[in-house]
Design a protein that fits this description.
The chain has 14 helices and nine strands. The chain is α/β, with parallel strands linked by helices. A five-stranded parallel beta sheet has the order 3-4-5-9-8, with helices on both faces. Helix 12 links the parallel strand 8 and strand 9. Helix 1 runs antiparallel to helix 3, helix 6 crosses helix 12 and helix 8 packs parallel to helix 9.
Length: about 325
């Protein structure tokens, strides 16, 4: 099934389910699915059609919530094509990525290599599948590419590859490297008298890597105020509960002791994330760490209950439909 056909099927299912969301659709009000469908079919509703997307561009909290819900559906859809991928870790960071790409980052639509863009690095590279729908929406590549995920020659990989996929600022796979790379980009930008801001998303299990703390120490030494690290603190890594494998708490205090400005927020609350990202732009002398408290498998009950079982896997047909239904009917 083509990607666009699948989107249409979701819209039809939504109208038939009778939920509050779909009641809005039935009454003719703009709802989530019609809005999304309008976006992907080139309409104007809730769409910023400007080529250049400035930092902290206006968007409502409800819009970010609905886009996060759509991203979760997209993640299921893309992995289903493979069929294998990282479900629970990708679902935990939906609001973080949506807030970054729809509100925070300075970008230019259709130009993934625009020199003046802000940079984003994915430390927890196994959630790359969550980036691909956002990149397609930014017109970094044709939407049809989403239907190739898992194919041998696909340009969209399970971990980000800067040599294959437009929009990837640095590759990742092995954990622990990208905070160091992001710091190098931040220092280079400042020394070249440029105003790039650099963001990196880390997993809380990734915090176990010693190189992360070497980079954290260097970032404050070099006063990298244009560097922001976001920790997707979902409390679970592949080896077990993060705190049981190796205690990392209290995370905010630890980063503060390394000379960072740190803030602890609900990672599923777009309003809290918007505020934290806005405050991070005010500090010119210190790097900022945003600890985003999240739930692994967010939005799908059986993944939330057993997150490590769904770290990597493939949903059967019945479980896939159950997961889609729960995401469509949930309110975040």
């Amino acid at each position: 099934m083509l990607w666009s056909q699948d989107r249409q099927r979701h819209a039809i299912n939504a109208q038939a389910s009778g939920s509050a969301l779909n009641s809005a659709s039935a009454s003719g009000n703009p709802d989530y699915f019609s809005a999304v469908w309008t976006i992907w079919t080139g309409g104007q509703q809730n769409v910023n059609t400007d080529t250049q997307l400035e930092r902290l561009r206006p968007i409502s909290v409800n819009d970010l919530k609905e886009r996060s819900r759509q991203l979760r559906l997209d993640i299921l859809r893309i992995i289903d094509h493979a069929p294998m991928g990282h479900y629970s870790s990708s679902l935990s960071c939906a609001e973080i990525l949506v807030t970054l790409y729809h509100h925070v980052l300075r970008l230019r639509r259709g130009e993934p290599d625009w020199p003046d863009r802000d940079r984003f690095l994915l430390g927890k590279g196994h959630v790359a599948v969550a980036l691909w729908p956002l990149f397609a929406e930014l017109e970094y590549f044709p939407i049809e590419w989403l239907d190739t995920f898992g194919d041998f020659n696909s340009r969209l990989t399970d971990h980000p590859d800067m040599l294959r996929t437009p929009g990837v600022d640095f590759s990742s796979g092995s954990l622990g490297h990208n905070l160091s790379v992001a710091l190098g980009m931040a220092i280079a930008s400042r020394r070249r008298k440029l105003d790039h801001r650099v963001y990196v998303l880390l997993g809380d299990g990734e915090i176990h890597e010693g190189q992360v703390w070497e980079a954290a120490m260097a970032a404050s030494h070099y006063r990298a105020g244009n560097l922001v690290a976001i920790v997707d603190a979902n409390g679970s890594c592949a080896d077990g509960p993060t705190e049981s494998v190796m205690s990392i708490e209290p995370l905010a205090e630890r980063f503060s002791s390394f000379g960072w400005t740190s803030v602890d927020v609900d990672g599923h609350d777009p309003e809290a994330l918007m505020s934290a990202f806005g405050e991070a732009m005010q500090d010119k002398e210190k790097p900022t760490c945003i600890i985003a408290r999240t739930l692994k498998g967010k939005g799908v009950s059986f993944m939330e209950a057993s997150p490590r079982e769904w770290h990597l896997g493939a949903l059967g047909e019945q479980d896939l439909e159950r997961a889609r239904r729960e995401i469509m009917e949930a309110r975040t």
